[in-house]
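User: Show me sequence and structure for the first protein, then do the same for the second.

Assistant: Starting with the first protein.
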Amino acid sequence: MRREHPDKDVELWCEDEARLGLKPIARRVWALEGNRPTSNGRHKFESVFVYGFGHPSSGRSRFLILPRANAACMGQALADFAGWADPDRRKVLVLIVDGSGGHTAKKLVVPPGVVLHRLPPCIPELQPAEHLWPLVREALANRVFNTLDELTATLTTRCHWLTQHTTVVAGAVGFHWATEHDGYRSI
């Protein structure tokens, strides 16, 4: 990429989406011996999708909450990301993505300056962005939300917190192979 675009900086980013909904996320909790902790469980299948972008070297991140995971929403997320990460269009943004339908659809509109690098199938452990989701879900654990608006408000607060705490994000997505390659450090 650097040889193809010698006049531009090349940045390596990762992206993934997660479905989060009204069905509670149960986690272990401490309780006194002999006392069983209460747990809220119900089956509500309303959900939203969080699109997460992470920069492995710096920990910068961007999150969008959208109603679906499809080519149209992915195109919307990519356009928002490109405008935020490179408003002057002076960079090439290489984005590591998995092989989900929204990433491979023929109708997907990829903005100029963004290059999608698709990982081979069935290896989610190589996708740095997969490690964003435990950080996001932490704010939802052992909580019950009655509406998508309540859930979205909590998600928005958590995602904003993550964007402000780059060291937390870098610790999650900063895979060694994504932060150093060919003797260069990603910027």
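Switching to the second protein now.
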Amino acid sequence: MYVIVVISGNYAFSRCCLIELAEIVRCKKKMGLIVFPIFYHVHPFDVRKQTGSFAEAFAKHEKDPRVDTKMIQTWRDALTDVGGISGWHLQDR
């Protein structure tokens, strides 16, 4: 089983995307799912370390009373995992 994840600068602002990514990473670890990331106009380092727009998104999530800290850490861990996978890094030329 393969999954292609397209990560853009606004990706981390979407709770739905982060929830889905956490589930993908869970399946990767449990069932050996192969994840192929496409970094669309973002650097893999920013995804892995949650800098730039990813830091802004998490600052917003941390202020949201509907999101608990355990869930935020799960999302951070998922981004760190996927950010460390070799994939396509697409930028304007």
